[in-house]
Design brief:
With 253 residues, the protein is α/β, with parallel strands linked by helices. It contains 11 helices and 8 strands. The chain folds into 2 domains: 95 residues, Rossmann fold (3-Layer(aba) Sandwich), CATH 3.40.50; 130 residues, P-loop containing nucleotide triphosphate hydrolases (Rossmann fold, 3-Layer(aba) Sandwich). The strands form 3 sheets. A 4-stranded parallel beta sheet has the order 2-1-3-4, sandwiched between helices. Strands 5-8 form a two-stranded antiparallel sheet. α2 packs parallel to α3, α4 runs antiparallel to α9 and α8 packs antiparallel against α9. The chain is globular, with a radius of gyration of 21 Å.
């Protein structure tokens, strides 16, 4: 969704892979940050400079890495996939609710599954949650019914954070509000992510045009941590609140 930190993540990836030996090019609408050493292009549909036309021109400049601000139509995704198939690293964003949903969205946009299978490396879904103010943070004991509703025992990665006391001893945190956080109880934000790696079994499901929940189930069986799972981990560590996690993530099936 809008405001989830997608552009910041894209720029962070660009800075990570950047080097003097590489030619990095971006196509954006608009360019939000100027990055030194990277060729950035702003699309202008009124003069015919669309994502598609810009990408066609960029491919003649022998780029190593291409960043597309957002994939909005079949023309853009078609060129992006063909670029990836010819050896370019392509990174972009797509509006979906989950990582597995991005694959289904590509298929619905008209991309053949065998092309996704051959070109896609991974998908990252992310959200931003507010961080608890460290100056007024306090423990919050939640009811047993709420803990059962969260189904914490269905997330193996959280077992180490729950301790041996059972649901009676689980504690979350909140900020009661102070002058340093303007009585909000929050200070700053942090990203939570859901990284789906295109493993051989996931690729098979894509080729079979499997539904989103089937792909997600397979990815979780291979170790993928969902948005809700990573969010709950941050809440148990006292980095964010349970309320924030429930606000930006959906329950896992």
């Amino acid at each position: 969704p809008t405001g989830s930190g997608k552009t910041t993540t894209l720029y962070s990836i660009l800075k990570f892979v950047d080097s003097p030996q590489k030619n990095l090019v971006t196509v954006e609408d608009p360019v939000e940050f100027q990055l030194e050493g990277i060729n950035q292009v702003t699309v202008r549909p009124e003069i015919g400079l669309t994502f598609g036309s810009a990408l066609r021109a960029i491919l003649r400049q022998d780029p190593n890495v291409i960043m597309i601000g957002e994939i909005r139509d079949f023309d853009t995704v078609d060129i992006a996939i063909k670029s990836a198939l010819t050896g370019h690293l392509v990174i972009s964003t797509l509006h979906t609710t989950t990582a597995a949903g991005a694959i289904v969205r590509l298929v619905n946009m008209g991309v053949e599954p065998y092309l996704i299978d051959s070109s896609l490396l991974c998908v990252l879904a992310q959200r931003l949650v507010r961080k608890v103010c460290p100056f007024c943070k306090e423990e919050l004991t939640v009811g047993e019914d709420l803990v059962k509703g969260l189904k914490l025992d269905s997330y193996p990665s959280l077992m180490g954070l729950l301790g041996q006391g059972g649901s009676q001893r689980i504690k979350f945190y909140r900020g009661k509000g102070c002058s340093r956080c303007f009585n909000l109880g929050y200070s700053g934000r942090v990203a939570i992510g859901e990284l789906l790696i295109m493993s051989p079994k996931v690729r098979e499901l894509v080729f079979e045009r499997a539904q989103e929940h089937v792909i997600k189930k397979q990815a979780r069986s291979e170790g993928m941590k969902t948005l809700r799972e990573n969010g709950l981990a941050l809440a148990l560590k006292g980095i964010t609140t349970l309320e924030e996690v429930l606000r930006v993530t959906a329950p896992d099936e």
